[in-house]
Amino acid sequence: MWMEVVPAQYVIRLRSPCPAVASDLEILWKTSGESLAVFEMQIMPVNSLDTGLPGLALVRTQLALQLRASGNWMVAHIDYLEKLVAETATAVGEEAISVVDMKDVLALDTYGALLIVRLVRSRAGEASAPQVVNLPTHLQPLYDEVLISSRSPRPPTRPNTNKFVDYTEAIGQGVADGWKDLLSLAEMLGALCTAFFNTLLHPSRFRLTSAVHHLDRVGWQAVPIILLITFLIGGIIAQQGIFHFRKFGADVYVVDMVGILVLREIGVLIVAIMVAGRSGSSYTAELGSMKMREEIDALQTMGLDPIEVLVLPRVVALVIALPILTFLGSMSALYGGELVAWLYGGMSPEIFVARLREAISVTHFQVGMIKAPFMALVIGIVACAQGMQVKGSAESLGLQTTSSVVKAIFLVIVLDGLFAVFFASIDM
Questions:
Q1: The domain containing residue 105 runs over which residues?
Q2: Both 389 and 259 in a single domain?
Q3: What's the DSSP call for residue 385?
Q4: pLDDT digits over 240-251, tens only?
Q5: β pairing state of 2-6 and 55-60
Q6: Helix (H, G, I), strand (E, B) or coil at 39
Q7: Is 157 within a domain?
Q8: Which residue has the higher pLDDT, 413 or 391?
Q9: I need a surface site. Which of 324, 360, 371, 396 has the fewest CB within 10 A?
Q10: Is the pLDDT reported for residue 126 higher than 60?
Q11: Beta carbons within 8 Å of 405's beta carbon, 6+ residues apart
Q12: What order of strands is seen across the sheet that includes strand 131-133?
């Protein structure tokens, strides 16, 4: 133990590795009949100022209790710093600390600054929180950065508002978002038309290899799943029709229902929905990944139009593939209906085919085939527009892919309803 007495300043300094040594000392020391002005207990080795070890002193004045830091507050002294701060907190107890004096600090890193911040915040419940003063100028920015970055964000407080106002605001925001989506789709349609006409003027610029590749993926590779699903849909429609029509002795009219419904509505609608989920999501994910990796920016830097290079071949392939898939799907659905009518309803294939010839006409087939390319165009525009809106995160890619499928299916159904009204108005 080492003790220094400076009568002129009435100061007693005690340095000891064990703070318990100071517990038996009285805070008031009598010297020449006067009260001691300052008592300082330094919890550090005797040679800490010489070796650079961190120190933390308790300085008690007649007005308040202060902390005085010194030495190197670095992560290299992590074990000693943790023990030092814990012993100081124990020695202080519930007493209020007014100031943390950092004048004698030689070096400071983020760990040491974080310990000081924690020590100050641990006393935040007091009447006035301790103030950190006299920190060397070159260490102040580091301490300020740690103080800001370690601050826990406060949870956002939602003001109490009228529920009617909240609902109205949500509706208005939804309308605004829908308008933005329409604008983005219109922008994509305009850019696609521009690229298409430029390709007509300069046919050599069309990416035929890319279009054939996407035609294979969108068309040929989708044939098995399209045939399977439409076959099951046709069989289900026939089974339900036979089950209910049999009550009225109208089994034969099941053929009319299956033929007209499949050729005009169900065939093209089911195929379009499946293509939107299968190929539309693929388009969005591909373009979104390229946007994340800045490949689209690289194309623009090289003087190439991303719409012409990436979007046009995909949309052209989709417009060609969807009518073909619609035809195959409709035939598969009719075959499924015929098989169920034979096995479940006892209607021979010959009777089914004969009745089908009387029930349907080429007009019904034309209605379904006319819808197909327009639905393909909608799916392609929505998928590519959503892919181009992907930001730099995987979360954005997932959100845009999901949004692409939902919007494409919604617009396909809306378009089918508009076509139904249009064909009804022209008696087709």
A1: 2-149
A2: yes
A3: H
A4: 999 999 888 888
A5: unpaired
A6: strand
A7: no
A8: 413
A9: 396
A10: no
A11: 276, 277, 280, 281, 284
A12: 2-6, 11-15, 38-43, 55-60, 65-73, 97-108, 131-133
- What six digits make up the tokens of 63? 């007005």
**pLDDT for residue 422:** 94
In a domain? residue 159: no
Q: What is the pLDDT of residues 57-90, one digit of tens each?
A: 877 776 667 788 888 888 888 888 888 888 877 7
Give yes or no for a contact between 339 and 235, defined as CB atoms under 8 angstroms apart: yes
CA angle 21, 26, 28 (to 5 degrees): 140
Task: Check residue 16 and give its pLDDT.
Answer: 39
For residue 257, the tally of other CB atoms under 10 A from its CB is 18
- Domain identity same for 416 and 274: yes
Which pairing describes strands 55-60 and 38-43: parallel, antiparallel, or unpaired? antiparallel
Entry pTM: 0.64
Which tokens go with 250? Answer: 């109208």
| DSSP label of 154 | P
Domain-located, residue 158: no
CA distances from 259 to 75, 327, 358, 371, 416 (A): 80, 13, 10, 17, 18
Both 176 and 117 in a single domain? no
Burial status of residue 62 (CB atoms within 10 A of its CB: 0-12, 13-18, 19 or more): exposed
Distance of alpha carbon 249 from the chain centroid: 57
Q: Which CATH number covers residue 76?
A: 3.30.750.24
pLDDT grade, residue 221 (50/70/90)?
very high
DSSP 97: E
> Is-contact 80 46, C-beta < 8 A?
no
Rounded CA gap, 407 and 413, in Å? 10
Residue type for position 70: S
Q: Are residues 374 and 227 in the same domain?
A: yes
Do residues 184 and 389 lie in contact, with contact meaning Cβ atoms separated by under 8 Å?
yes
What average pLDDT does the segment 165-184 reach? 90
Q: What is the mean pLDDT of the chain?
A: 82
